[in-house]
Amino acid sequence: MTPNAASASSGPSRRSFLASTAVATAAVAGGVPLLAACGGSDSGTRDGTTSGKDAEKILPAFVASNVVKPDIPSRNGSAIGFTGKLDLATLKTSVPKQLGKGGKVTVMAPFWGSPPKQGNAYYTAMNDLIGVDVVWQNQDGNTYDQKLGAVLASSDVPDVVVVPGWNMGGKIPSAIISKFADLGPYLSGDEVKRYPNLAAIPTDAWRRSIFGGKLRGLPMPAPSAPSMVPLYRQDIFEKEGYEVPKSCDEFMALAKEITNARARRWACLDMKWTAFQAFGVLSGSEKPLGWNLVDGKLVNRIETEEFLEALEWSRKLFAAGVVHPDSKMGKNAPDAGPKFAAGEFLIYPNNISQWWGRTAEQATQNPEFKIWGMDVWGHDGGEPVLWADQPAGIFAFVNKKASESVVRNVLAVANVTAAPYGTKEYMMTNYGVEGTHYTVKDGVPVKTDKGNIEVMNAYVMVASPAATLAHPDFPEVAKGQVEWQQRMGAFARKSAFWGMQITEPARYTNLTNDVEQLEDDIVRGRKKIGDMQQFVSDWKSKGGDELRDWYRKLLDENGSAAS
C-alpha cells in the first residue's frame, strides 16, 4: 500500500489534492535559505517566517536512518522506493527501547471514513508498543476546518491537535502560535537524537514546522517532486492504438478521437490541474499562495498570462464535449473509480497515490485494467515548467499547557509512527497485528476485514518518515511512481518562498477565498476569462498590492529561497 495514504475525493480540488498529497509521501532534506522572522512577540500575532541563522538554532539535527536501504534512492525530490517482497522474519527494529512512560495522551485529528471504536485491537497493540495510552478524538476530515476552529477558539484543547495545511486559513495560524507548545527544548539540535526516527525526518520538513519563530509542529513530510499526475487507462490506450500526447494540441486531438457520447465514452474529467502544469502556472495550493519572482518582479499566479491560458484551454475541453458530464456537476466530481474502471472516461488528474489505489481496487474483478501516469508535457510540446511541492503539509501540535511528561509521551508516539518502511514499527503502524489485521502470502501483506476497519488514518497523522513508496502487492506500480516523480522532478523549480512556513497578516487571509470557485466556473463555461481579470483587478485594490509589498519586504531583507 502507499504508506500513510488517506482517502480523498477523486475530484481534483485544492483540498482533495492536498489531502492526498500530504498524506501519501514525504520529501528529501535540502538546505535552502528561508526568510527571517518578522513581526511581534510570541503572543499569537507574529507574522512572517523564520530562516537563516535563526532557523538553524531551532532545527533538529539531521541523522539519516541506516536501518533499511531502499531499492530506489530519492532523486530530484522523489520519494524513496521499495520494489521487493516483504519477509517478516527480516524486519528491522528502529525503536529498541520503549520510550513511552505510561499515562494518557488525547489526539484530535481528521479522519476520512468511519472511525473505529476506542480500545480496538489495533489501538491497543500500538499503545502497548509505544508505552502510551493514546485516546483518539477523530473528526470528519471533510468538515474538519469547522471543528478545528471551534476547538482552538475554546479553552478545551486536546493534548495533540493535527492541522493539515489546507485548514490553515483565517485565524488558524495565529491560534497555532498562541495555543501550542515550543518543541525546541525537546528536539532542537542534538536533543532530537533521543528520538532517532524523528532525527531522520528531512530538514526541510522541520523548517515547515516552525511557526511564530518556534518549532511547534511534528511534520508529515512530502516529496518536493510534483505529485499531481495525469492518470490514464493504459490498457485501453494500447488496445485502441492511442498515443500519449506531448502537447495541449495533441491532447485535444486525442480527446476528440476518444470521445463518443452515444457510446458513453468521454476522454477525461476536468483537466485544470494538468493545464496548470502544462502552462507552468505557479503552484497555488498552500501559503505562500502562488507568489514568485518573475523577471525581478514579485507576481502572483493569478496575475500571469499562463494562468489565464490554462483556464482557457481547460474551458475549450469542456466546450468541445470531451469532458465527462460528471465534471460539470461541480468542482468535485463524483467518485471517479467505477466510471474510470468501466471506461466511461480514460484520463483524469489526481494525486499519485491513486495510481496504486485504482490498481488494487480493480486487481481481482478487472484483470485487464491497467492505470498508468502520463509524463506532463509543455503546452507547446516543449519541456514543462513545473513547481516543487512543499516539503510538509500536515502537522501535529502539542498543547501549550501540556506537562513535560505529556510532551515526552507524544514524542514517543511520533518516534514510532515515523519509523521507516521495512521495520517492525512501520508494519505495526501501517498494517496492525499480523494474523488479526493482515496476513502475508508470497511476501504480500493483505489486510483482513478487521484490518480494513481498524487500521486506518490515525497514528500516521502524528508524524511520518521521509517520503516512501512501497507496494509489495504491485511493485511495478511503486517503481513507476518513483520513476515518474524523478522524471518530473527534473523539471521542477523552487519558488522564491519554497519550504517556508509563512504566517500572513490576518487582514489578507481571505483575499483569494473565491478564486478556486471562479476558476471552475470559467472552465465549465459559466463565467468568462474577463471575470477572472476583473477579480484580479479587485484583488489588487482590496489588498493584493499591499500583500505584494509585504512579501517584497521579506525578500528585500532576506533574499530568495528559489533555486
Automatic annotation (TrEMBL):
Its subcellular locations are: Cell envelope
Q: Which organism is it from?
A: Streptomyces dubilierae
Q: Which family does it belong to?
A: Belongs to the bacterial solute-binding protein 1 family.
Asked if Signal is a keyword of the record, the answer is yes
Q: What is this protein called?
A: Extracellular solute-binding protein
Q: Which InterPro entries would you find in this protein's record?
A: Bact_solute-bd_prot1, SBP, TAT_signal
Superkingdom classification of source: Bacteria
| Protein keywords | Signal, Transport
Pfam families assigned: SBP_bac_8
